[in-house]
Design a protein that fits this description.
The structure holds 2 protein chains of 2 kinds. By secondary structure, chain A is mostly helical. The longest helix of chain A is centred in the N-terminal third of the chain and has 36 residues. Chain A contains 14 helices and no strands. Chain B is an alpha/beta fold. The chains are: A mainly alpha, B alpha/beta.
Chain lengths: 333, 266
């Protein structure tokens, strides 16, 4: 596996992602053969068209985009902090988005109009990242950034608990709790339209960090001596992750482990290079999340759908442990 | 040779103060010319690493810093990086990169380090540091001595005019210490301006053209090893007495005993 060139492996991953999205388009709760679905859509029949374009296509697109955002941001964060255990949530981005969304659900703002929930998530992200910047902005050491992120994360967590604590009735409570478990069921093309631009812009910012992250492999001083502007790099990673992950969490809820596992899985293919890792981790994230969402749909047998975030954590955690045990020697010299 | 030619790197009255007012560096003047191998010596905490970081432009300092006569502040980070390489203490690498890729990082000041030209330079630097056989190895699996050579190759890969190396001999066995010092000597002979922080006085006397001695942030001596490594200065800077070993044209100071006991004798 190590002998695949990065370009080769990227094209293989890309093909896998395409194949999986096709599968995802064919999978759902309506008993309709793929042939009927696609030919019906092309012929302009209403039911196949509605199912394919209004239900399955947004869900598939969001799977790809959210998964890519999480994988990419995870890889960038690990590169920036030079820590294989870093993940997008570490700097308070996910919890900021969750807090915004939870507040929207709690106050009933989420019911005012369709996109209120993701918007609130975006505002929450911006607030959390602004706070982390204010706390750590002027310092150059990564440790300060991590500590600020952990502080903001915990604060958001505490505020979410407070909201749950004060939640007026059980149904509001369960709505919030279910949202936090993360899911991409019943999303519409509006969700895609609001999330995708942020994810694309954020991803572009992150993908352009490759050179700086590569230099950071040798530590902060050496990276600076190689002409890398660390403050700018840090800002770019933080803003890119905030845009991509903030938008992702706002439409999907909290989905764990993709941001941690995707970069970890791809690191051997990238030859350890944190720059080459970025596009590979994005592809791997998209594949993993589409796979998980397919799993959610295939495992369904009446009753409530298993939440996507629950499945990723359920499968992701043991898998991550396995990876750690297998690569312990390499990663922890 | 030193002082007469124009300096490649010159610091004038460099001072660094911590937030709580401690002076890490106190009005230090430092010149480094092409082809010169200069050792920076002094006790732990004397300000050697701080001086090196200031010279590399990695730490803000009061005073003037000139690179080839130009104020460092007027150069972009990329321009500075193309001319000046900094070899950090500890030789740490954070990811399981192949040795070839690590050395290629040294090409970053000139681009993305992936052209055929870059690859040729990387191969040349690996050969120059006797590391060619390691090219495909995972850098995290190297021994300390191998890693020191590879990191030196990384620093040389940007083809700098100036190399600042912070304790490149730390934790190396005698053979590797000699091999690194010989490599630095050879690069200096090829015109590189080298400043290196050292702890080993014997190697400093044996290899360096010039030594600067720091004591509590101040530069207290600057000159050829024979004049800097005298009993009075060593007692002042390190609190040690040395035994001198004469060999060929060298006068090598062997640290022998503390000149001032760290605690009262029993």
């Amino acid at each position: 596996m190590k002998h695949l060139s990065p370009r080769r492996s990227a094209s293989l991953l890309f093909a896998a992602a395409l194949l999986l999205s096709l599968l995802s388009l064919m999978t759902g709760y309506v008993d309709l053969s793929p042939w009927r679905l696609f030919s019906g859509t092309l012929a302009g029949e209403q039911i196949p068209q509605r199912i394919l374009l209004d239900i399955r296509l947004p869900r598939t697109l969001l799977c790809l985009a959210v998964g890519a955002a999480l994988g990419l941001a995870g890889a960038a964060m690990q590169g920036l902090l030079r820590n294989p255990l870093a993940e997008p949530g570490l700097l308070g981005i996910s919890s900021g988005a969750a807090l915004g969304a939870v507040l929207a659900l709690y106050t009933g703002f989420a019911d005012r109009f369709y996109l209120a929930l993701p918007l609130a998530g975006g505002v929450g992200t911006a607030a959390a990242v602004g706070f982390v910047f204010a706390l750590a902005g002027r310092h150059t050491a990564s440790t300060t950034l991590i500590l600020a992120g952990v502080a903001v994360s915990s604060l958001c967590g505490a505020l979410i608990s407070l909201v749950l604590n004060w939640s007026p009735n059980p149904s509001a409570l369960s709505e919030i709790v279910f949202w936090m478990m993360g899911s991409l069921a019943d999303r519409s093309s509006d969700d895609v339209v609001i999330a995708l631009p942020f994810i694309v812009v954020g991803s572009a910012l992150l993908l352009s960090c490759g050179r700086g992250l590569r230099a950071l492999s040798l530590g902060e001083e050496t990276a600076q001596s190689l002409g890398i502007d660390l403050r700018r790099l840090r800002r770019q990673v933080l803003l890119g992750s905030a845009a991509a992950v903030g938008a992702a969490v706002s439409v999907s809820g909290a989905i764990g482990f993709i941001g941690l596992v995707a970069p970890h899985l791809m690191r051997p293919l990238a030859g350890g290079d944190p720059g080459r890792l970025l596009p590979l981790a994005a592809l791997a994230g998209a594949i993993l999340l589409t796979l998980a969402d397919l799993g959610v749909r295939l495992l369904h047998s009446g009753g409530p759908e298993l939440k996507l975030g629950v499945l990723t954590a359920l499968v992701g955690a043991p898998f991550f442990l396995y990876l750690i045990v297998r690569t312990r020697k390499e990663m922890l010299p | 040779m030193s002082g007469t030619t124009s300096a490649r790197l010159e610091g004038r009255q460099l001072s660094v103060q911590t937030d709580d007012g401690r002076r890490l560096l106190d009005a230090v003047d430092f010149r480094l010319g092409a082809g010169e191998l200069t050792g920076i010596i002094g006790a732990n905490g004397a300000g050697k690493s701080t001086l090196l970081k200031c010279l590399a432009g990695l730490q803000a300092a009061d005073g003037e810093l000139l690179l080839d006569g130009q104020p460092m502040a007027t150069l972009s980070a990329a321009q500075r990086a193309q001319r000046l390489a900094y070899l950090a203490q500890g030789h740490r690498v954070h990811w399981p990169l192949a040795v070839h890729d690590v050395v290629a990082l040294g090409r970053l000041p000139h681009g993305d380090g992936r052209s055929a030209h870059d690859a040729a330079i990387v191969d040349r630097m690996l050969a120059a540091t006797a590391s060619s056989a390691l090219a495909q190895r995972n850098v995290l699996t190297l021994s300390g001595g191998e890693r020191a050579r590879v990191m030196l190759a990384r620093a040389l890969a940007s083809e700098p005019a100036i190399l600042l190396a912070d304790e490149p001999l730390a934790a190396l066995d005698p053979a590797h210490q000699l091999s690194i010092m010989q490599l630095l000597t050879r690069e200096a002979a090829n015109g590189l301006a080298v400043a290196v922080v050292l702890h080993d006085l014997v190697l400093a006397a044996r290899f360096c053209h010039r030594l600067v001695l720091l004591h509590q942030g101040k530069l207290i001596a600057d000159g050829p090893p024979a004049t800097v490594l005298n009993d009075a200065l060593l007692a002042q800077a390190f609190g040690i007495r040395v035994v001198h070993l004469e060999h060929e044209q060298y006068r090598l100071p062997i640290p022998w005993q503390l000149s001032t006991p760290p605690c009262p004798a029993p």
